[in-house]
């Protein structure tokens, strides 16, 4: 029989690796660690917000008094809100609340923050 190399002081076996393969004091078994999880809700809501802003800045073609006109979706929605406010007292109250909130946000220095807007009914047909 051949002579085996002498073992260290500790026994070697399951859960007991040789000393040269054991972790040094202060060394982690997973030095880089598990990767951090990206917050899904935040990035998705930011992407949605950017998409909405880009859509609001898009130009569309509309017909006003028989003449074709190109305006942004944002301007179109404001005009639609004003037209609806002239017809419906509830829409008028909602528009006044919206203007009041926007004015308050502007006076408090929060003018860039998004406001929640409720629009009743759909958008009219328009040429894109």
Would you mind describing this structure in some detail?
With 128 residues, the chain is mostly helical. A hairpin with a 2-residue loop joins strand 1 and strand 2. Helix 2 packs across helix 3. The radius of gyration is 33 Å and the shape is elongated. 1% of the residues are buried.
Give me the secondary-structure topology.
Layout: H1 40-56, E1 59-64, E2 67-72, H2 73-87, H3 89-107
Helix pairs in contact: 2-3
Helix content: 25-40%
What proportion of the residues form beta strands (DSSP E)?
5-15%
Number of strands: 2
Oligomer: single chain
Question: Cα-atom Rg, whole angstroms?
Answer: 33 Å
Low-confidence stretches: none
Could you give a short account of the major beta sheet?
2 strands, antiparallel
The helix-strand sequence is HEEHH
Overall outline: elongated
Number of helices: 3
Helix/sheet category = mainly alpha
How far the N terminus sits from the C terminus, by CA atoms, comes to: 90 Å
Mean pLDDT: 77
As laid out across the biggest beta sheet, the strand order is 1-2
Q: In short, what is this structure?
A:
The protein has 128 residues and is mainly alpha-helical. It has three helices and two strands, in the order H-E-E-H-H.
